[in-house]
Write a structure and sequence with these properties.
alpha/beta, Nuclear Transport Factor 2, Chain: A
């Protein structure tokens, strides 16, 4: 029995596209597109990095600024320097001596006591506080605010200057403090009660904080005040003793000259 032959194979039909062929690729355009894509990829990856670096640099700059500010102020933990100035003075009239037996302490004029108090405060400012703060000598012209002309003549160019004025000391870099017990006032008056002289018992304790250390000054004795034509009261005589101790002091006198005679301005 014979086997029939296989059916003939059909060849696949090839479809023919009617679409126009794609344009040829320009090598220059392809190179430009690849360069753009590479640059875009690089910028995309670099953006976060630049942001992080900006934050780090800003934080570092802030830290440096804080450190500089702290250093300029001596550091957060550095103690603050007390540069205050305090003067604590008070007066108390305790005697009124007059040839009039009917005059008593109650006749001690309050305005005279107040004037003596003010003169003592001015004296401390001119003789101690300003020289300590400036590290300089006292201007002779300033003496006229406290001393009468006869007294000034006995200060300028004499050993009494060192007794009365705190000059040539190390400049104060910290606190200046002047304290005193209440200073007793003794008045000498005429028969009509007019006060001619007032003696103040002086006992000053002075502390000056300088760079090399503390300086201590004690001044005690008496100062005599006389009325002036303009109504003020000024120092016309004194009997004082002064002692100074501390680092950086020069060869200044530590004790007073002999007792100075009292004069009254005419």
């Amino acid at each position: 029995m014979s086997v029939p032959p296989p059916p003939p194979r059909r060849r696949a039909r090839v479809a023919v596209s009617t679409a126009p062929p794609p344009p040829p690729v320009d090598p220059a355009a392809r190179a430009a597109r690849r360069a753009y894509e590479q640059n875009a990829t690089s910028e995309t990856g670099r953006g976060p990095i630049l942001l992080i670096l900006s934050v780090v640099v800003a934080a570092a700059l802030i830290g440096v600024g804080v450190m500089i500010a702290m250093d300029s102020k001596g550091g957060k933990d550095a103690p603050e320097v007390d540069t205050s100035t305090s003067v604590e003075l008070a007066v108390n009239p305790i005697a009124f001596d007059s040839t009039n037996a009917y005059k008593t302490l109650n006749d001690f004029p309050r305005d005279v006591a107040d004037a003596i108090h003010g003169s003592l405060e001015t004296y401390v400012d001119i003789a101690t506080v300003k020289p300590a703060r400036k590290g300089a000598v006292v201007n002779d012209a300033d003496l006229a605010a406290v001393f009468d002309q006869a007294a000034i003549a006995r200060i300028v160019g004499t050993p009494d200057r060192d007794v009365l004025l705190d000059e040539g000391l190390p400049k104060a870099t910290g606190r200046v403090r002047v304290t005193s017990p209440t200073m007793d006032l003794y008045a000498l008056a005429e028969t009509d009660g007019k006060v001619m002289l007032v003696t103040a018992i002086v006992q000053l304790g002075i502390e000056i904080e300088a760079k090399a250390g503390a300086i201590t000054i004690t001044r005690f004795g008496s100062m005599v005040f006389a009325p002036q034509p303009d109504g003020t009261w000024k120092v016309t005589g004194w009997t004082l003793h002064v002692e100074r101790s501390g680092a950086g002091l020069g060869p200044t006198a530590s004790t007073a000259a002999p007792t100075t005679s009292t004069t009254v301005a005419g």
